[in-house]
Amino acid sequence: MEQTKKPLMHEDWAVVVMGGLIILLALSGLVIPVPVYSWKDGTDLATTVFSSSNLADIGKQLLIVFPVAVLAALLTGKPVKSTIPIFGLIFVITQVALVLAGNRMMNDLNLEAVIFSLALGLIIGNFFRLPGWVREVLNAELYVKIGLVLLGCAVLFSNIMKAGGLGLIQALVVVLSVWYFAFWLCRKLKVDDDLTMMISSAVSICGVSAAIATSGAIKGDSKKLSYVISMVLVTAVPMMIFMPVIANYFHFPERVTGAWLGGSIDTSGAVVASGSLVGEEALKISTIVKFSQNVLLGIAAFAISVYWTYTKSTTTGTHEKPTLRVIWQRFPKFILGFIGASLLFSFLVTPEVTASVKSGLKSIQGLWFGLAFTSIGLETRFADLFKNNSRKPLWAFLIAQSFNVILTLIIAFILFG
Hints:
22 helices, mainly alpha
């Protein structure tokens, strides 16, 4: 078995380098292909997803992510020889997950690809006892962080203005109020610190992306992250279906319904789907409000990072307030990559160039998230997934989500009624 070597670079800096390299290549003219995964039946699957041109696009994406993963392993001290075959396995499993998620029925249920990546990884990791050297090279946290750096390319400051004043006001009130309530509730229920932060962000900001960003910011346990994401995705489906029904039954104005859906439902796909069930006006308003919450993700991740670094420094050993040097040492540097990408695409890259690279970067970002959750599944035992996770986190999530739904409806009536 290959020995783990001393890291040449801290993982967070390696993430910034790897994410920055992908962005630089895209801006330099590298065309990142966007494979098609949508299909409705066997014939469609064979002629679109498994067509020679689409398989070629998938292969081209492999040629982009594979060298990055190997270089990241080299920089962070992971065994490179072991990483090569295991990354190939992770890539194949992730592709299967993307194909499953691309089915029209799965799309209608708004089941995101990461849940299939996690599920497949869990099934394989639990039915087959993976040797220790395999688990050693799984690099879920690094893959998540690379995806988050790339996510920064889509969070444009100009879009905050496009989101509209009322949408931004609602987003700020809802995010701050719901986050604090969820945080307070988790503390009352004695939920552990990692889950408290992830649940608070997932409920109040934008679901899966917020949970992932928060986990990265606090260096959270990947098993707990998968637990939170499972709660987000499971609750999004009934909310997507029943909230439009409730709005229709009580004859809520369409603008109010749109604002309610956009501020309450945690995943963007479910917001679009539920808004479409109500009408064009509701779809527009719900999208604006959800986007207003999404653009707050970077600010929230930065604030959470500083808070976590500061509080953890004061609760370990001495109780002395940490110096700026200590905060900087413990601050997750990948957040700087996220902010840097956002600033780059907001102020330096032209709209024409942004439009030309946007779809490719978004596709490769989704792939990194898929690779990360496949890795999390492979290294997690079913027993471990719910070990020490009593029903308290679930109750905290459900109660906070109920508070979110009620508060958002009140604010929607005040601002859009």
